[in-house]
Structure formats: structure tokens, C-alpha cells
Amino acid sequence: MATPPKRHVGQYVASGDWSDYWTTRISRAESGKIWVRGYPIEELIENLSYVESAFLLLRGELPDERELELFDLVMRSGMDQQLISSAACAARYTASAFPDSAVPALASGILASGSVTGSPQEPAEMLIEAVGWGGERDEAAERVLGLWSERRGATPGLGHPMHKGAEPRAVSVRKLAIELDGWREHGRMLDAVEAALERRKGKRIPINLAGALGAVLADLEFDPLVIGGLGAATYGMSLLAHIAEEVREGVPLRIIPDALGSHYAGPEERHLPADRMRGAKGRGSGRGEA
Known about the structure:
Elements: H1 9-15, E1 27-30, E2 33-36, E3 39-40, H2 41-47, H3 50-59, H4 65-75, H5 86-97, H6 102-111, H7 121-133, H8 137-151, H9 168-179, H10 185-201, H11 209-219, H12 224-234, H13 236-249
Antiparallel strand pairs: 1-2, 2-3
């Protein structure tokens, strides 16, 4: 699909023609009728699975069998890993303060899903860029390490704070993607980057889930912007499980006491100088003059 031309509000203000200002190719609704990507909604509800519907919404066309199995693999891979996820912690903190609805807490968890917490968007961008260079894969991998060391100080898609030898979710995703013919150019580039980093560091820093998902989704030709959103969406059910558990079984208004790692490192008790105290000579009372 061709990329549509960029639009800006100035062109509409200048022309006065707002006829295509709000335009979507995703769905259409009229009295008694709804179409999604051109298909009647009742056909989709009655015949498609959740992942088929999601693929259709995002890509505009139905997936073939290979694409469906790979997309399903991606969407079921973001299961929980206890409370080492800052997204889960953010969701539970919000739930502890706002137990009336799961929605604010779910939003908090989604908002905590970014490059540091394991979004597949950066790895996908890295791999798409590297594949686009062409040439030898090992040379491209070495170039990736240099570029991302300058850009970010680390290589996206590799390493995990807990799983040092291998990230179990990433291992399963990669294995199944290979079996499904879904570990293609971008997956093989990620393998080459992992090997190049091992040569440079003298130790293995394994592919993590974000890297594996970024590779699979890039090989499925998803837009990196969508890939980042999918990373958050895959963890959504886990967040909802945490939220329900927190509301039903947790502690209202969570805190971090000293015993759990809270530590003050600022100045000891001190006081304002005399000339900054209210009532000091030369300072007003805070009221304006009459």
C-alpha cells in the first residue's frame, strides 16, 4: 500500500475545503450497518478469531495461514514475569489508589511500556535499518553495535536484568518462528547482532522478548509504530490480571517504606535563614499594599 501524502492543517485553512479532513480506511458505519476494512461486521464476528480480526484491523487484509500462526505467537507471548515489570508495578500502584475501575490502572501499565521496559519498537527499527543497508550481514551487525552504542549506549533487543543465559520467552518465540518460516531477514540479522555483541563483549548477551517480537513483526512487514503498540497490547491481559488481584487481594494505597528500599539521600534537617522567615525586617507580610 502506497504511503499517503502528508497533510497539515494549514492547507485546509488556506483552501477552505475540509471535505477529507477526517478520513479513515479502517471502518464505516451507517444506520444498521458496520463495515471493517470493507467486510460486514457480522461476518467478522461470526467467522474470525480475535487474532485474525486484529491482523485485519492493523494491516487491512486477512492473514494467510503462516501470518496468522506467527501473529498469534506474538500476541500470546507477553505473559507475566512477576513484579520485575515496571508496567505491572505501575498498574498495581494505580489500582491500589483507584480500585473503582480497572481502566485507569490498565492505562498506567500501558503508559509504562516503553524502550526501557521492553518495547519491540526500537529493536524493529534497528533491524529494519540494518537490513535496508544490504551487504554482508556480519558487517551490518558490527555497524549496528557502533551506531546504537552512540545513540543509546546499548543495543536494543538484547539482554535482560534477570535472565542472563537465555530469556525463556524469547527462546520459545524464536524456535516457533523458525518452525513457522517466520524468522527471516530481520530474525537472522538479530542473530548476527547477538553473535557480534558476544564477540565484542566476550560473553553472551541473549536476545530478549522485545528483540524476538521486533524481528518477527518486522519480518511480517508491520510498521514499527504499530509494533510498539503491539508490544504493549501483548502484555495487556497480564496487566488486567495484576489489577484484579491488587484490587481484590492487595493493600490499598501502596507505599515504599524504608524496609522495602526507600532511602532518603538529601540534606539533614536545616532551617530557613532569618531574612527568609515571615515577619523578618524588610520583608512584606505577603499582602499587597492598600
